[in-house]
Design goal:
The protein is mostly beta strands and about 140 residues long. The chain has strands spanning about 10, 15-20, 25-35, 35-45, 45-50, 55-60, 65-70, 75-80, 85-90, 95-100, 105-110, 115-120, 130-135.
Length: about 140
């Protein structure tokens, strides 16, 4: 897997890929249209953030590259890559319980707060990747 040089792209399976943790300075791409939604990504070595129709979707500290990001009524799944452990925040349904899986292993059930944010960490190093699946 590699960083997304164009910052965000649509994949043939309907998912999106975004983020470049190798950038020394913040870059952003706005008004990226995908399935009738308008997406905005900001990314560099310290943070990667995705918004959809001006609503929060994804944030990682430090920055990451995300591939195969796909949302459904039942949750979200994606693969994340980075050089260091990442703290990830997702924008989901508020006050809802989700099961979180990393590389096929359950890391527990977590509930979103009143704002719909779900926080968890993923262990990454030197460009390694992890498959994340969040189920309602």
């Amino acid at each position: 897997m590699a960083v997304v040089e164009q910052l965000i792209r649509a994949e043939s399976d309907g998912s999106i890929s975004f983020g470049n943790y190798e950038l020394p300075e913040k870059k952003k791409l706005e008004n990226f249209e995908h399935n009738g939604d308008i997406l905005k990504v900001k990314t560099f070595k310290d943070i990667t953030k995705l918004e959809c129709n001006e609503n929060f979707v994804y944030e990682s500290v430090p920055g990451t590259a995300v591939t195969g990001f796909k949302e459904s009524d039942g949750g979200v799944e994606f693969t994340v890559e980075g050089v260091n452990d990442a703290q990830i925040t997702l924008g989901l349904l508020e006050s809802t319980e989700y099961s979180v899986f990393v590389n096929g292993s359950a890391i527990g059930k977590m509930s979103t707060n009143i704002g719909g944010k779900l926080n968890f960490s993923v262990e990454l190093s030197d460009g390694s990747s992890a498959k994340v699946k969040i189920e309602k």
